[in-house]
Design a protein that fits this description.
The complex is a heterodimer of chains A (about 200) and B (about 600). Chain A has about 200 residues and is of the alpha+beta class. Chain A folds into two domains: about 5-110, 2-Layer Sandwich (Alpha-Beta Plaits); about 115-190, 2-Layer Sandwich (Alpha-Beta Plaits). Chain A is built from five helices and nine strands, in the order αβαββαββαββαββ. In chain A, the strands form two sheets. In chain A, strands 5, 6, 7, 8 and 9 form a five-stranded antiparallel beta sheet that branches. Chain A has a four-stranded antiparallel beta sheet with strand order 2-3-1-4, covered by helices on one side. In chain A, strand 6 and strand 7 form a beta hairpin. Chain A is globular, with a radius of gyration of 23 Å. Chain A starts with 13 loop residues before the first helix and ends in a 7-residue tail after the last strand. Chain B has about 600 residues and is of the alpha/beta class. Chain B has a six-stranded parallel beta sheet, with helices on both faces. In chain B, helix 11 (about 245-255) packs parallel to helix 14 and helix 16 packs across helix 17 (about 410-420). The radius of gyration of chain B is 25 Å and the shape is globular. Classes of the chains: A alpha+beta (about 200), B alpha/beta (about 600). At the A-B interface, helix 1, helix 2, helix 3 and strand 4 of A face strand 6 and helix 12 of B. The structure holds thiamine diphosphate and magnesium ion.
């Protein structure tokens, strides 16, 4: 049926690459399109339903959403969200476009490849009696965790830092009788001054 | 028999009513009505109920400049507003009550969202203090419609009402259009505020793109100049942006053939030699051949829907792709493109026009002409009444100068294939959502929109879908709309039957409509319309002649077409476009 079967052997267009992938063919290392974790900040109008629209977008479009944090920003009429999502470059580009398309979103930034700082807060409640307390306290000292509550049979620690540090802390605590863990999810900000709001 | 108008004749504006000057505060209901007037709304398709009764009361008092059309089902109201919007390019307006009134609108809102149709839907809501209490007729309308609206508003303060209406219309019509819901709690409608309709609205975080990036446009022009076998792939966005004429002149100037999507029909005259008709699942064989062989696909206001591409890896295998679209979220969503141009299609086509030149494409055009010869769009002509013949006769009767509104199913595809559209906004259908029951109410809305210019409106239906909003026939009759309602009655859920025949070994599970079909002629007459029946191909013209003589009410034509007719060509769902089934092949070769 096809009259012209002459295939050119020039470099692949994005669309040919996509087809190759969809057809399950091997992709050369330099063509690879792998899945990464992305940290995206979004400024939204502080109106009813705005936060809902953002999170709804992820379920509606089938995007992953690992964590969301939300709180007031510099401007009290705006809220700032930090989202952590995963996907290949194409998906992430879609996530960003869809977030931008929301009427409530004022600014969307993917900080992943920007120079930025990230912090997460974590509370961990561990069962411990008075006799075990000293040993436990010396361990958490290394992570600069704070004791925020003590009961006769438990200790609650607060630790803040990049996600890797939180993971390490929770990993160490697994050796003890951990009863509860609460993580805030990440908040992030680029290091340099970029935009004025 | 005369039908009462939707407002009672005794409803004169009470002369004793205080004027705006001695009563500077207006109720929310009045503010809403004044806002709609200020917005230039011509028609409101609505249905009253408890939560909005105050608005209806105020309408009775004010006798506003717009006309309220009392529909008989809120779904019909939303489709009527869609039909009006598609035919005129203006925003459609709907007003309904809370709870069931709002949920009945969901299908129409979803339909408008999928097809980028500008609608503003006002829904009543329980008083703010009862929201969340499961009050009588409460429904979380904003929540239910969140993923099917471009945006939505819950008005909590009457002082925000006028500006919210302004924003809603602005959002609905600008950029990539879409439906906007405005939820109006009963206490907000009753509260008072001074009325002021703003001239401008600022929506932080919302901007509409205009011209395309000059470098990208230049790149596109270079790609066009270098291409040997370019093809325009034109979607509904071209018509929405008002760019159809520009596209036509650009294609003619550069001798680039044009294929359109279902929603692109009419953006380029199908009787032009450069037209290869519709592409995709039920597109022409030659349009799909052109796609499979082109080296440059220029997508204009189209979104690479799966009904267009089929198996995406096998689609347009030799093509580089230019994609012009106003919606950034559409670009590279389904198919990665080589040259995206974000912008208003109409403006980008202007930019492109300055940079492209006539070129000799004899070889490519000759190839396309040969494909058209090889497998034309055709059907068998014998003494059986075939649906395609009815559609052709409708075209001949109107010279293609009509607005055709099709339903969903086989009738939709025959309506798309055999009418030969030559004008933008002359073809209206539910493409994205595929909503059975769309055609009749949408045709009614289109007929209201076309009333002043006297354009014929034809509604093409199946015997299944037409019953899904048949109640609006009474409304069209009451307003003396001369809609030509065509039923391609095959006594089956034909499109499903076609799949059952081709892919499910002829197991016709629950698709026979014969036991439940009404007598459509009697049904038409019961609604105050004219009913006609046609069973013989020799009578098609006479039936149409009789129908076109009626100018003061709808005419329903029950065409008893044969059940076995199928829509060809066909690319089976999910198959590669190269595996197209055409009428020249027998079904045994393809299942
Ligand atoms: C509301 C709704 N329900 C079900 C479907 C699935 N569907 C698509 S086409 C079709 C058959 C339509 O039959 P009919 O209206 O008689 O049209 P025909 O295909 O026979 O022309 C059905 C059931 C749909 N598109 N919309
Ligand atoms: Mg049918």
């Amino acid at each position: 049926m096809t009259t012209d079967t002459a295939q050119q052997t020039v470099e692949l267009t994005p669309q040919q690459l996509f087809r190759k992938q969809a057809a399950g063919e091997a992709i050369l290392p330099n063509e690879e399109d792998s899945v990464h974790r992305h940290v995206i900040t979004v400024l939204i109008d502080d109106t009813i339903g705005a936060l809902n629209r953002v999170t709804n977008l992820f379920s509606q479009r089938g995007f992953n959403l690992e964590s969301v944090t939300v709180g007031e920003s510099k401007d009290p009429t705006q809220r700032r969200l930090t989202l952590v999502t995963t996907g290949n470059d194409r998906i992430i580009a879609q996530v960003l476009r869809q977030l931008n398309a929301l009427i409530d979103s004022i600014e969307v930034e993917d900080l992943t490849r920007e120079d930025h700082v990230e912090r997460e807060l974590c509370l961990v409640k561990v069962r411990s009696t008075a006799t075990e307390r000293a040993a436990l306290l010396s361990v958490v000292e290394v992570f600069r965790a704070n004791v925020v509550n003590i009961t006769p049979d438990s200790l609650t620690f607060e630790v803040t830092g990049p996600t890797a540090k939180i993971n390490a802390f929770i990993g160490v605590m697994k050796d003890y009788d951990v009863r509860e863990v609460a993580r805030s999810g990440r908040v992030a900000m680029r290091r340099r001054l970029a935009f004025e709001h | 028999m005369s039908h009462p108008a939707n407002t009672s004749p005794t409803a004169t504006a009470p002369s004793a009513a205080p004027t705006a000057t001695d009563r500077p505060l207006a109720t929310g209901a009045e503010i809403l009505i004044r806002s709609l007037e200020a917005e230039g709304v011509e028609y409101v398709f609505g249905h009253p109920g408890g939560a909005v009764i105050a608005i209806y009361d105020e309408m009775h008092r004010i006798q506003p400049s717009f006309q309220h059309i009392l529909v008989r089902h809120e779904q019909g109201g939303t489709h009527a507003a869609e039909g009006y919007a598609k035919a005129t390019g203006k925003v459609g307006t709907v007003l309904v009550t809370s709870g069931p009134g709002a949920t009945n609108c969901v299908t129409g809102i979803a339909d408008a969202y999928m097809d980028s149709i500008p609608l503003v839907v006002f829904t009543g809501q329980v008083p703010t203090h009862l929201i969340g209490n499961d009050a009588f007729q409460e429904c979380d309308t904003i929540g239910v419609t969140r993923s099917i609206t471009k945006h939505s508003f819950l008005v909590r303060d009457v002082k925000d009402l006028a500006a919210t209406v302004k924003k809603a219309y602005h959002l609905a019509r600008s950029g990539r259009p879409g439906p906007v819901v405005v939820d109006l709690p009963k206490d907000v409608i009753a509260a008072r505020a001074p009325f002021h309709y703003p001239d401008h609205v600022q929506i932080r975080g919302y901007s509409v793109v205009g011209r395309g990036n000059a470098d990208q446009v230049r790149k596109a022009a270079d790609m066009i100049a270098a291409s040997k076998r370019p093809l325009f792939y034109v979607g509904g966005g071209t018509i929405i942006s008002g760019g159809a004429e520009k596209l036509t002149s650009l294609a003619r100037k550069t001798s680039i053939p044009v294929t359109t999507t279902l929603h692109g029909l009419g953006s380029f005259p199908e009787n032009d030699a450069l037209s290869v008709g519709m592409l995709g699942m039920h597109g022409t064989w030659y349009a799909n051949m052109a796609v499979q062989n082109t080296d440059l696909l220029i997508a204009v206001g189209a979104r690479f829907d799966d009904r267009v591409t089929g198996k995406i890896e096998a689609w347009a295998p030799h093509a580089r792709i230019i994609h012009i679209d106003i919606d950034p979220a559409c670009i590279s969503k389904n198919v990665p493109v080589d040259c995206p141009i974000l912008g208003d299609v109409s403006l980008v086509l202007d930019q492109l026009d300055d940079l492209v030149h006539p070129a000799d494409r004899q070889e490519w055009l000759a190839q396309i002409a040969a494909w058209k010869e090889e497998c034309p769009l055709d059907f068998q002509k014998d003494d059986a009444l075939r649906p395609q013949q009815v559609v052709r006769a409708l075209r001949d009767k109107t010279d293609g100068e009509a607005v055709v509104v099709t339903d969903v199913g086989q009738n939709q595809m025959w309506g798309a294939q055999f009418f030969s559209y030559v004008h933008p906004r002359s073809h209206i259908t539910s493409g994205g959502l595929g909503t059975m029951g769309f055609s009749l109410p949408a045709a009614m809305g289109a007929a209201f929109g076309m009333r002043s210019i006297g354009r014929d409106v034809i509604s093409i239906n199946g015997d299944g879908g037409v019953l899904m909003n048949i109640q609006e026939l009474g409304v069209a009759a009451a307003h003396k709309l001369p809609i030509k309602v065509v039923i391609l009655n095959n006594n089956y859920l034909g499109m499903v039957r076609q799949w059952q025949e081709l892919f499910h070994e002829e197991r016709y599970s629950h698709t026979n409509l014969e036991p439940t079909n009404p007598d459509f002629v009697q049904l038409a007459e019961a609604f105050g319309c004219v009913g006609l029946q046609c069973t013989d191909p020799a009578d098609i013209e006479a039936t149409l002649d009789a129908a076109w003589k009626v100018t003061d009410r709808p005419v329903v034509m029950d065409f008893r077409v044969i059940t076995e007719e199928k829509v060809f060509p066909m690319v089976p769902a999910g198959a590669a476009t190269d595996n197209m089934i055409t009428a020249q092949f027998s079904p045994e070769d393809c299942a």
